[in-house]
Amino acid sequence: MAKSNNIPQIQNEEQYEALVDKGYSKEKAARIANTDNAGKKGGKASTYEERTKKELYEQAKKIGIDGRSKMSKKELISALRNN
Questions:
Q1: What are the domain boundaries of the chain?
Q2: Residue 75 and residue 53: Cα distance in Å, rounded?
Q3: pTM exceeds cut of 0.85
Q4: Measured between alpha carbons, how far is 7 from 75 in angstroms, rounded to an integer?
Q5: Cα 37 to Cα 43: distance, rounded to the nearest angstrom
Q6: What's the confidence (pLDDT) of residue 36?
Q7: Helices within 1-83 (DSSP H only)
């Protein structure tokens, strides 16, 4: 698909559609489908519980979660999982 009028394009359409079908929001599905390793298996990311509150805060900041500065670690984990 060609990019027109500055509308973001989905890099991995198949993965995007599968995520939307599973109930992910269009925004979250697009964010996942547009990662560099979209559709590849074998991720090595640590679980949210293994990360520090600062790391969780930075991830929340990166994806634009509002109210993150007042959240506890548990609240940040919940917000990241449900965004």
A1: 10-36, 51-83
A2: 10
A3: no
A4: 32
A5: 9
A6: 72
A7: 13-21, 26-33, 53-63, 73-82
